[in-house]
Amino acid sequence: MKRITVFCGSSFGTDDVYKSQAKLLGKTLAEHQIELVYGGANVGLMGAVADGVLENGGKAIGVLPNFLKSKEIAHEHLTDLILVETMHERKTKMNELCDGVIALPGGFGTLEEFFEMLTWAQLGLHKKPIAILNTAGFYDSLITFVQTMVDKGFLKEVNRDMILISDDTDELIAMMKNYVAPDVAKWINKERV
């Protein structure tokens, strides 16, 4: 595993633990010699995870749309900053560059990015591990809701199990390194109705 994309908030949230865990994840990535791929900003948890990588001798690659660079939120000390035109190009480039994904606490954008990568995995478009760093139980309600999708027949258990979850950075990296994608097709055919 050479590079991991991290999706996370552009703010720090209401609890200092979110920032400290983001920095710790950055440090952990650097210690495992895994490069960070992320949204390229210097604000919120995005900036914290990049700082955690860079302060510990790691490499951080930002992918930022031009319209956000013009708002002066680009991190100025990255190993590399890739500028793109649209948010969709950003996600596509981040997917191309990474071997796996971790979601930290965040808002709509974080969830949208996380679920798009998860959906692509479900459809067999990639076999990368998709993980949640569940800092201070931030994602507990979401995890419960995903189980509701299974219970109500809208999601297969094998697809639920594609989401790797831990509140410990080292454990999460180990889970990702050992991940094997399921070999189950998403779509039902005549023989499997």
UniProtKB/TrEMBL annotation:
<dbReference type="GO" id="GO:0009691">
    <property type="term" value="P:cytokinin biosynthetic process"/>
</dbReference>
<dbReference type="Pfam" id="PF03641">
    <property type="entry name" value="Lysine_decarbox"/>
</dbReference>
<keyword id="KW-0203">Cytokinin biosynthesis</keyword>
<dbReference type="InterPro" id="IPR031100">
    <property type="entry name" value="LOG_fam"/>
</dbReference>
<keyword id="KW-0378">Hydrolase</keyword>
<comment type="similarity">
    <text>Belongs to the LOG family.</text>
</comment>
<dbReference type="InterPro" id="IPR005269">
    <property type="entry name" value="LOG"/>
</dbReference>
<dbReference type="GO" id="GO:0008714">
    <property type="term" value="F:AMP nucleosidase activity"/>
</dbReference>
<dbReference type="GO" id="GO:0005829">
    <property type="term" value="C:cytosol"/>
</dbReference>
<protein>
    <recommendedName>
        <fullName>Cytokinin riboside 5'-monophosphate phosphoribohydrolase</fullName>
        <ecNumber>3.2.2.n1</ecNumber>
    </recommendedName>
</protein>
